[in-house]
Amino acid sequence: MIEPAVFVLLVGSVTGALTAAVALLSGLVFGHLSAAEVGLTALEAVLFALLSPLAVGVVAGVYLLSIRIFVGKVASFREVYRMAAYTFGAMILAWTPLVGAFVTAYALMVLMGIGIRLVYRTSSLTAVVTVLAGFVPVAVALIWLRLTTAGLASL
To answer: pLDDT tens digits, the chain, 155 residues: what are they?
Structure first.
């Protein structure tokens, strides 16, 4: 599990740095850039990078539960973590304004669906149901996290 975790850490580092650069550039363009905002943005980028392997582990756990319910006891956490880690590679584009939500949905639905379909040799319908059952709680958690952090940032 070291290789997928390192991959996630690298993708998270690049994504965090690019996201921070876009945030700082937009703050500079619109004239709302302060030293505190620069520090907070840098902290967010570092936390995103460092917590990415843990977040992928949570996503893998949710998808593992979904796979075990709809496909059977054919998967281990290690396999699903590897699959989730490599689909996390699509997040390298999440820093792009207005594209991040689509990239997240693409990674969590399309790429995970292809992985489940091919690795566990399921039917397309089973893969779709399995992916949707895993996607919904993860998406709700991500929306909640985004709203919570937006509320904290406005304080």
So the answer is: 899 999 999 999 999 899 888 888 887 887 777 777 788 888 888 988 999 999 999 999 999 999 999 998 888 899 999 999 999 988 888 888 788 878 888 888 999 999 999 999 999 999 999 999 999 999 898 888 878 876 655 55
Q: What are the structural domain ranges in the chain?
A: 2-153
Question: Rounded to two decimals, what is the model's pTM?
Answer: 0.83
Q: Do residues 92 and 14 lie in contact, with contact meaning Cβ atoms separated by under 8 Å? A: yes
How far apart CA 74 and CA 70 sit, in angstroms, is 10
Write out the DSSP string of the chain. Answer: -HHHHHHHHHHHHHHHHHHHHHHHHHHHHHT---HHHHHHHHHHHHHHHHHHHHHHHHHHHHHHHHHHHHT-TT--HHHHHHHHHHHGGGGGGTTSTTTHHHHHHIIIIIIHHHHHHHHTT--HHHHHHHHHHHHHHHHHHHHHHHHHHHHHHT-
